[in-house]
Every structure is written in structure tokens, then in C-alpha cells.
């Protein structure tokens, strides 16, 4: 039981740290995409008023935010001789899917001579509606999932302790395999709802360690009733 408690506690600290870092990175990425959608609208509006692309990008670079910082670097690349499309490709390799869409639109406009502002309007409207729908789904499903997880954190260890005492098994490190399996099931549910594979993967050790801690706290309460 002591070993299980130590494993659970260490696992909880490590997995919570990794999970928190991942959520922070995802939050920054989400904010970046929102800023980029607004930036596309500003670029489109500026170009419709007769200004050139460089003027529109310069306007974005003067505003606060992550997108502003990236566009400042893009302008530096352009001033050093790169085309705007090449500078976008250089700076946006690992940014986000929306930045990739933005780069594709700019490349298409440069190659075909089509109206960039109209294409940016269509793109920003489409990606904004998609992100709005994703956030709406996330908002509606997060609370029920958290409630289910909260109940499970207390219920699963209690049920496991009861079953162990009833059939005469001891609660030891082998119990962690069972808890890990339950955590895996929860991660699958998380993936089905949020469509985020990395988040679901990181949730496995987090849930398993939480269940392990719950087990080590609950088991002593039942030692007078079950044979542990």
C-alpha cells in the first residue's frame, strides 16, 4: 500500500505537470488562431480601402499579441529579400492549421492574381464558424464529463476496495494495473468528446495516479470491513 501510494503521488505530480504544460500550449495556440482570424479581417479591410499588402501587414505588426510578433519577423524576412509567401512559409511551419490556410490563400492570390481580400474574408468567416462550433461543443460537454470524472475518482476506488475485500485479494501495486485500465477508458471518452489525441494520452497517467491516490486513502477506511 505504501509503494502504491508513492507511485501514485509521483505519477500524479509528473503527469499533472505535463498535462498543465500541454493545456497551456494549446491555450496559446487557440489564442493565436483567434488573433490570426482577426488579423485576416484587418488585412482584407485595409486592402479594400486601397492600401497594399505590406501596409496591411505592417498595421497588424504594430498591434499587441502573438500574431503581431510573427508578422514583425515576416516583415524582416521580406525586407531581407524573401517574398511574402516564402516568409509566411518560413515562419509558419509549426504554428497552426489556420496559419497554413492563410499561407495557402496568399500563395494562391500571388499565383493567380485573384482578389486576396475576398478570399481572406471567406476564409476568416469559415474558420471562425468552425472554431465557434468547436468551443460550443466543448462548453456543453466539459461540465458533464468533469462531473463523471469527479464521481469516478471516489467511486472506482471504493468499488475496487469492496471487490478486493469480498474475494480476498490484497490491495497492492497490481491494483494499479486495474486503475490504469479504467483511466484508459476515461481517456478514450475524453478523445471521443474533444478529438484531441495528445490530451487524451496525457490524461491516462493523470487519471491512473488520481485513482491510485484515492485507493490508498480509501482502503484504510474499509480495513475493518474487508480483508485487505
Write the layout of secondary structure elements.
Blueprint: H1 2-48, H2 53-61, H3 66-79, H4 84-91, H5 97-112, H6 116-167, H7 175-194, H8 197-218
Helix pairs in contact: 1-2, 1-6, 1-8, 2-3, 3-4, 4-5, 5-6, 6-7, 6-8, 7-8
Short description:
With 228 residues, the chain is mostly helical. Helix content is 82%, strand content 0%.
If you had to describe this structure to a student in words, what would you say it looks like?
The chain is mainly alpha-helical. The chain folds into 2 domains: 2-27 and 134-222, no CATH class; 28-132, Receptor-associated Protein, CATH 1.20.81. Helix content is 82%, strand content 0%. The chain contains 8 helices and no strands. It has helices at residues 2-48, 53-61, 66-79, 84-91, 97-112, 116-167, 175-194, 197-218. Helix 6 (116-167) packs antiparallel against helix 7 (175-194). The protein is elongated and about 75 Å long. It starts with a helix and ends in a 10-residue tail after the last helix. The model has no long low-confidence stretch (mean pLDDT 76).
Mean pLDDT: 76
Low-confidence stretches: none
Any idea how many domains? 2
Number of helices: 8
Strand content: under 5%
Shape, please?
A: elongated
User: What about the largest sheet?
Assistant: none
Structural class: mainly alpha
Order of helices and strands: HHHHHHHH
Strand tally is: 0
Helix content: over 70%
Cα-based radius of gyration, to the nearest Å: 25 Å
Distance between the termini: 10 Å
Amino acid at each position: 500500500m505504501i509503494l502504491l501510494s508513492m507511485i501514485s503521488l509521483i505519477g500524479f505530480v509528473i503527469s499533472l505537470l505535463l498535462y498543465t504544460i500541454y493545456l497551456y500550449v494549446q491555450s496559446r495556440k487557440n489564442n493565436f488562431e483567434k488573433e490570426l482570424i482577426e488579423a485576416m479581417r484587418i488585412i482584407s479591410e485595409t486592402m479594400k480601402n486601397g492600401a497594399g499588402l505590406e501596409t496591411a501587414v505592417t498595421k497588424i505588426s504594430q498591434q499587441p499579441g502573438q500574431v503581431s510578433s510573427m508578422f514583425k519577423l515576416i516583415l524582416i524576412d521580406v525586407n531581407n529579400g524573401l517574398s511574402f509567401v516564402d516568409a509566411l512559409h518560413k515562419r509558419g511551419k509549426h504554428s497552426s492549421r489556420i496559419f497554413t490556410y492563410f499561407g495557402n490563400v496568399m500563395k494562391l492570390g500571388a499565383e493567380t492574381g485573384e482578389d486576396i481580400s475576398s478570399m481572406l474574408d471567406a476564409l476568416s468567416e469559415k474558420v471562425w464558424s468552425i472554431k465557434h462550433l468547436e468551443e460550443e461543443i466543448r462548453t456543453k460537454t466539459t461540465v458533464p464529463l468533469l462531473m463523471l470524472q469527479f464521481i469516478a475518482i471516489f467511486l472506482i476506488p471504493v468499488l475496487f476496495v469492496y471487490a478486493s475485500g469480498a474475494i480476498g485479494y490484497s490491495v497492492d501495486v497490481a491494483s494499479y494495473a486495474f486503475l490504469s485500465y479504467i483511466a484508459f477508458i476515461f481517456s478514450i471518452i475524453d478523445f471521443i468528446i474533444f478529438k484531441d489525441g495528445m490530451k487524451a494520452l496525457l490524461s491516462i497517467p493523470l487519471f491512473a495516479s488520481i485513482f491510485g491516490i484515492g485507493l490508498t486513502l480509501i482502503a484504510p477506511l474499509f480495513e475493518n470491513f474487508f480483508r485487505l
